[in-house]
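so ive been stuck on this for like two days lol. basically i have the seq below and the ligand is pyridoxal-5'-phosphate, smiles is in there too. i just want the complex predicted, nothing fancy, no docking runs or whatever. if the output looks off dont worry ill sanity check it later, just need somthing to start from for the group meeting slides
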Amino acid sequence: MTYTDLVKKPVLSQPVYEPGKPIEIVAKEFGLEVGAIVKLASNENPLGPSPKALDAACKAMESINLYPEGGGVFLRTAIAEARAVDPAQVILGNGSNEIFELLGHLFLGPGDEVVFGAQAFIVYKLVTLLFGATPVEIPMPNYSHDLEAMREAVTERTRLVFIPTPNNPTGTCVDEEALKAFILALPDHVVAVIDEAYAEYLNPEPDFRELFASGSKVLCTRTFSKIYGLAGLRIGYAYGDPELVDLLHRVRQPFNTNAVAQAAALGALNDLEWVDRCRKDNETGLQQLTSGLNALGHEVVPSRANFVLASNPTPGETFQFLQRMGVIVRPVEAYGLPGHLRISVGTPEQNASVLTLIKEMEMTRRARPDPTLV
Ligand SMILES: Cc1ncc(COP(=O)(O)O)c(C=O)c1O
């Protein structure tokens, strides 16, 4: 018997998530200084976390000989206050990715179906496959979710529907009222998951809480990895119906989020000024990248998040060139978007340098003799 004989069958064909390349690895590969690398590949906050979050994390480091508070009661209470729900409606996750996996534990097995957009965040598909369930991927015309087509794809076997707004990698939002109506019309055996990873970049933020009292089965997820700048600490959360949240608590590990992450997230949540500044800087950065790329003839999908999806005539070559020059962006063929690159919003200097490099590369490419004419 080999491990392959013994392992659960879905694992054998399970794709592995490909993260953005880490700075240290790119620096080593191309002989560059770590400090000179610009990472615009994973939609992180270029300003970093709030100083209040950093202070809280440092303080929490003094007690890391102790287990964290298992359910993260202080952070959950603060989140509940911020979202105006009850703490019993909130669960923490090791990143919001963990919440998606907990949903898999609760609801998915072979024969079950999960509906999501074909260019929606890829982890929905990974979780679906991991539990041996069937992904039902719905085309996204104009890079946007087609709620009507998603509704038509729901069958007796559908257990989960994922709707990210804004979505990664397209940056597009679903109309708030249309999404509420879509969820209200879902059959009783379907749980809707609204992924709000980038919601804090919207002003005003959408508000789906009225759905909790409607009897609809719905869960909202959020993260501290994006505007709060804590991606490295892995902390996110979900809020929704207390019965569903209670079920999610049963399938999580006893200490699924660590003490430093809990403390930092609490500090971050209390610094609204920082969040406001990050949101405003992001708006400026989005404009800078969008107009800069447009000027180079690249189409940019209007983005509501902290990244842009841009058309690119030679995405592979551009990615390689930028990487050699110390700028890491994200190719998105895995999302069925071969002629595109996703570029996270950086600082004004970082945005300027990616634009300059793309321009430089295109000028060199145009100056090259056409091999078909030789
Ligand atoms: C749409 C979306 N949802 C969820 C996540 C996961 O975030 P985390 O697990 O870091 O909380 C990401 C990360 O990029 C994302 O883009």
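The first strand starts at residue 38 and ends at 39. The CA atoms of residues 221 and 238 lie 4 Å apart.
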